[in-house]
Amino acid sequence: MKITLSLWDIAGQERFNFFKTDFFNGVTAVALVFDLSRPDTFENIDEYFNDLRERSGNIPMILVGNKNDLKKDIGEAISRAKILQKVNQYNLFEFMETSALENKNLDRLFYRLALISLLDFRGRLGEIVDSNHFRFKILLVGAAAVGKSSLIKAFVNKEFEEDYKLTVGLDFMTQDLEIQDKELPRETMELIKKSVKEFKKLAKKLYKREELEIGKINGEQKAIQNIEPVSILKNVNIVGKEKDKKAKKTRKYYFIIILIIIVIIVLIFVYSYFFR
Questions:
Q1: Class of the 2-184 domain?
Q2: What is the spatial distance between Cα 18 and Cα 16, in angstroms, rounded to a whole number?
Q3: What distances in angstroms separate CA 127 from CA 26, 60, 70, 149, 268, one per listed residue?
Q4: From 19's CA, which of 50, 162, 208, 244 has a CA 20 to 30 Å away?
Q5: How many Å apart are CA 130 and CA 134, to the nearest integer?
Q6: How many CB atoms are closer than 10 A to CB 57?
Q7: What is the pLDDT of residues 77-133, one digit of tens each?
Q8: What residue spans define the domains of the chain?
Q9: Structure confidence by residue, pLDDT tens digits, 20-72
Q10: Residue 68: helix, strand or coil by DSSP?
């Protein structure tokens, strides 16, 4: 089956924290990304995890240690035991090390995100394109400069961009891939088929409703064409008079309020002048 991944990268700088959770809705799977050479980015994972659980519920997540290529120069900055402890603590789907520079595990990462989206399939609005095509919103979150944008761009464009720029606000790209039906459990396939069937029924209802509304509009247009110009002018005049009445009432209301305010200001001034 065909899967379209909508890949979202939210900027990790603190100044964008005020709106980052606005994009958590409708997410099907998440990559919690940290930099293997910077322990502080690993500690930031807790905050993102808690925000996601609060806003998006129990969606599947993968822990991603990026910039694996730096390990040969700096060694292991974060112990494997500590990382696995985090995976178990939060019941994450798995841990994976990646490198956008060396194209390590990129296809595997995004294939896994697509797969766990199918395993947790809920048939929400926009996810079903047709019976054999699905669209999922995938989110990459983590501190600034951990390489989220680089992972997405290297996966989509199949090359690493040397000219690195921090994401401002958010970044968004799409990519298609294929998943074989045999890789999914029978229960998941049955759930998907059931959701597609319900989706088709709903689509038919909406289509019929739309046809009725279009027919109603066309009928009203024909009726309007048969109305004499004189009666239209009368209706316009009546509506115009009603609007004039409302406008006069509104102006009168505001005039009274302004007058009261002026009187109050004058009284305050007189009082402060004679009784100070």
A1: alpha beta
A2: 6
A3: 9, 16, 37, 23, 64
A4: 162
A5: 7
A6: 10
A7: 999 999 999 999 999 999 999 999 999 999 999 999 999 999 998 887 779 998 899
A8: 2-184, 186-225, 227-274
A9: 566 778 899 999 999 999 999 999 999 999 988 988 889 999 999 999 999 88
A10: helix
